[in-house]
Amino acid sequence: MTDRAVAGSGAEQSLALRAVGLRVTVARVAVLRVLGEVSHADTDTVIRRVHAAVGAVSPQAVYNVLADLLRAGLVRRIEPAGSVPLYELRVADNHHHVVCRRCGAVDDVDCAVGEAPCLNPSQSQGYLLDEAEVTYWGICPTCQLEEGRLAVGAPPFQRRTSPAKSRDRMTSTAVDE
Fold first, then answer.
1. How many angstroms from the chain centroid is the CA of residue 44?
2. CB 40 within 8 A of CB 160
3. How many whole angstroms separate alpha carbon 75 and alpha carbon 9?
């Protein structure tokens, strides 16, 4: 498949790649599509879904694409404690993450302050600070339901399976009882 054919089938991904000076390839467009479909995807999930979508793309090619996209600023890599690296497309804002202690689900949390760094330490040790990485930990609505409880006022949610288990996300609706 030529670069033009890829551009014709994935115009937004192609424009994004070109805007940061990257060549449009089948693998790059496929990885961007997967990350658009699966928030906080681990590498195994990306590899599996890219292979299912376009066929013969080696795992090493996917690792290389992820590294290229990361360097170009098109993806963000996060590593919650005890987790494999996770990738997301949300890079244009200062946001944080909440991680379920039971199943490992990860969701975005908007920053309360807005701009980085959103926390100011008591001492900067002479560093010029430009970012604070915040990870909230708790029990997700699905695990709460499985335990027979749900936080008061918990909204309907999108269930994401544990990234460490490399499964795709499922949609579910929580019900207050």
1. 13
2. yes
3. 21
Largest CA distance in the chain: 55
Q: pTM for the full model?
A: 0.74
What digits encode the pLDDT tens for the residues 59-112?
999 999 999 999 999 999 999 998 899 999 999 888 889 999 999 999 999 887
Closest CA to 38 of 140, 156, 168: 168
- Three-state DSSP at 89 gives coil
Quote the DSSP letter at residue 147. Answer: T
Q: How far apart are CA 81 and CA 150, in angstroms?
A: 25
**Three-state DSSP class for 159?**
coil
The half-sphere exposure of 115 on its side-chain side, counting CA atoms within 13 A, is 2
DSSP, collapsed to helix, strand or coil, labels residue 110 as: strand
Measured between alpha carbons, how far is residue 9 from residues 37, 54, 120, 170 in Å?
Answer: 16, 12, 45, 26
| C-alpha to C-alpha distances, 127 to 7, 74, 94, 134, nearest whole angstrom | 43, 27, 20, 18
Rounded to whole angstroms, the Cα distance separating 171 from 50 reads 21
- Omega of the bond prior to 85 within 30 degrees of 0, cis? no
